[in-house]
Sequence to fold (740 residues):
Amino acid sequence: MLRKAFTFIWRVPLSPLICLGLAWLLSHTETMRAFEWRTLDWRTRLRTYYQPPPDPRVSLVLFEDNTEASITWPPDRSVHGDLVEMMSFVHPKVVSFDIILDATRDGEGDEKMGHAVAVAARAGVKVVTAGVTSADPSPPAEGREGPTRPLTHVEGDISRLLGDEAALLPFPALRAVSLYGFADTPPGDDGIRREIPLVVRVGKRVYPSLSLQTLMAYFDVPADQVRVRLGDAVYLPTKARGELRLPVSKEGRFLLNYRYDEDKDTGPDFKTYSYIGALVQLNDRFVEKKPASPEPPEVEGGIVFIGQTVTGKADSGPTPLRAYSPLVLVHANLINNVLTGDYARQAPGWAMLLLTVGLGYLGAMLGMRRTVPVMATFGVLGLVVYVVAAFGSWIMYSYWLPLTWPILGGTVLQFIVIGRRILREQRARAQVKQMFGSYLSPELVNRMILSGETPQLGGHTEEITSYFSDIQGFSVISEKLPPDRLVEWMNEYLSACTDILQGEGGSLDKYIGDAIVMMFGAPIALPDHAYRACVAAVRVQERSEELRAKWRAEGDKWPQLVWSTRTRIGLNTGRCIVGNMGSRVRFNYTMMGDSVNLAARMESGAKKWGVYVMATEATKLACEQHGGDRVVFRALGRIVVMGRAQPVPIHEVVGLRVNMSADTLRCVQSFEAGLVCYYNRDWTGALAHFAESAKLEPLQPDHAGGIATNPSLVYLEIVAECQRTPPPENWDGVYVMHEK
Fold:
């Protein structure tokens, strides 16, 4: 059962779905999530080179090491009160403390800070302070709850919100005159705060976070007008910008689009002031009224966050941009996101799964018929394009395309697709070698494999050159030799001829006793198939001469009939059907058609004309198209073979010009001159030319050598007969063969 299932999955193209689906499931593991966050940090850091400056309405006042040198942390709360009261002179809209000012400390500073906050409020400055959820309650004193109210329009499961049964709240005198929000910003597994709660749960009530309360104060939105839909957004109805939508998860968390930090070399991105510097500047300017006092902080109408970043006591930690930064920047970046509408958006997981699976199928289809290097290049380019798109979408549009699991799934998919392709090619190569290794030369099989051309199995039309050869007098020899010697002799002869033929690109069709049937130009195309066939025929004759000399030299081992045998070859070029033919259970790669039959007639008809390689004019013309005059042909006339009505010009393949003697070339010239006279009924001239060529024939009658006649002698007899019995007036010189 498992094997069948694996076979089904292997054959059906499920690889994109399986690879990318598994990668998507893995993306929900802690390890993969952590790495995905890390890739987002890389994109965030690269984005800093191209992003605009932060919103000027957001400013920071930091209690840092220089302030610590003058005022020990934590300072008396009256100092905070002084800063708030003097801040009212520069008219910020909101001052938000990212500092926990709870009731665990006593002293006159609490009342002074409460009074200062009340003074600032009358001047139009809203102050927001921080609380945190806690298991230890800090109940408000009777009548001192202040203006902060829970959010009442909440849809969704509040049990999923960050929170606890109680809270650590600002001290009573402060919360009586100021708003407070919750500064709970738990870090992720890697210590970085990325998803910030906008709402938290205290018991069964829902309160705004420090950032949300700051926004509510800035836009003058009371708590009873805020709508919270967990899994959708927090909605703030504002007068200036209409209803603002702050997207949140089902846990009430906002995906922080962290852009701005502080750098050791370039300084902070937001307008940032030292706590002690702001106190001194405001005091000199507005209290002491010193004439040469520096310009005070430019915060009019904006939001001022007050935070602390003292070494060893700092409220600091890692951020997407730096390993150690003031955590008040988390709130400042969140406020900047809302003021500029610069929200981080994340592609839905299901949509990305469908998209990547679709692209996986598209890529697999496009690469289906490509070579392995092209597929690999295409796959790498596809992954590179996706990486560029993921970086570009975040840098330009703050749109988060997942990077880790699509790259992992895509890479595995490429290995599987390319691996399957390589395996299929290996199997195809083995199949080709198995199918054609017995028919073709190893060089041709390798060429077929390397070319990537799959033979078209099942009959198809192809132009090829057919080759037929036969041993003259084989029947007599087979009677004389015992079976074991006959097999030995035939194996030596057939091996020598087949090696030559396959070496020239020929494909074995079959052996029929002593006969060899070959095809040139199939199963893979050879543009010069006719030239190759002619050269192969010449080389077979040369090798046959060498074998006859060898057999003669072996003495009594072979009778005279063996070492005097000769091979007749017939060639024809034309279109025929080639392919696997036969029954459903047994077939053979072969050729069929009239042009094949004509090649067989060339082989059998060669005996009549006293030649040993006879070809049609179609073969001669095709050979000369690719081989020029390198092969020497001799015209033998026009014949009508048995079974055909139309005459066929025939030629002898004499040999290769490079090896041709001057006498043989003169023989061919004289013979063809005699043939012209023959067609013109010039019997005297024909006899003279044929008599001259007969003296120059390379093969003279030799009974011991197996040579009975030659073309010149054959035509001397034909011309003599024409002299004795002249042909009719409509004679066209065509010779009709009455034998196969």
Notes: The two ends are 61 Å apart (CA to CA).
